[in-house]
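SUBJECT: A protein chain and its fold
Encoding: whole-number codes for local backbone shapes
RECORD BEGINS BELOW THIS LINE
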Amino acid sequence: MRVSAFTFIKNGQILGYPFLQSIQSVLPIVDEFIVNLGESEDDTLALLKSIKSSKIRIIYSNWSEKMQNRGYVYGQQKMISQFNCTGDWAFYVEGDEVYHENDLIKIRNSMLANLNNNRVEALVFDFFHFYGNGNTYLDSPGWYRSEARIIKTSSRSYAPDGLFWLVLEGNKKGRYPYAKRVGVHCFHYGWVRSEQQMNLKSQQVQKYWSKDYQSIDYSQIDPLILKEFKDTHPKIIEDWLPQESGIFEADPQYKLTKKQKKHRLMLKIENFFGIDLSKKHFKLIK
């Protein structure tokens, strides 16, 4: 079995991505790591080259500033890197996602166990979305609780906006991939970077979605979805995390948006019936 990992990044240093830790977290279980580097204005390239591993292969691309329709440029860049993968599996690792060293063997074994199962096209991770600091994560149907991050290269897959995959059975219609759970978590740290970096990222990202930039204030969030993280973080990310104690504090005077009120109602329904109403971009099979 040959495993490829891949990602795309642009201005990773300026925008506060822990992309070095992200890449290094999965290097032990992959045979190659494809990094699609967009033209950057910082030291992202030099930092990538500081990782002394023959597994890493850097390719270069330019992002189309004209493509500002629903984030499709992210789908383009994701597929450029995925189409350069030579393994049986393609492991998509976003620049703010890290995997725990204690879970690597289980991830590798899951790929091995499902390699020859033609019904399985993808593998799914549960998610910890950390927020504000490393002691706090979000639990809400408004934030995806699980997502496919590994897919077979034999599947005719593409990414509409970089967030998920669709599999083509014919030439016109796509469907979510058939998948199995790995049974471990992906550690997502995008909302732990400083507010300044998050706002800079938002300014650069929203133009690709034809949206107007809106300032981000971490304190403006529903306090009911903030949960305390009591386990251990991956060792590779510990030095990057802000050294703060306690759960992140939301603004007690914050007024929920309509969408957040909807999610709070959905959360009550989930708790009452013991179900998960969060969005899923995959179809689980037994």
Summary: The chain has one domain: 1-215+223-286.
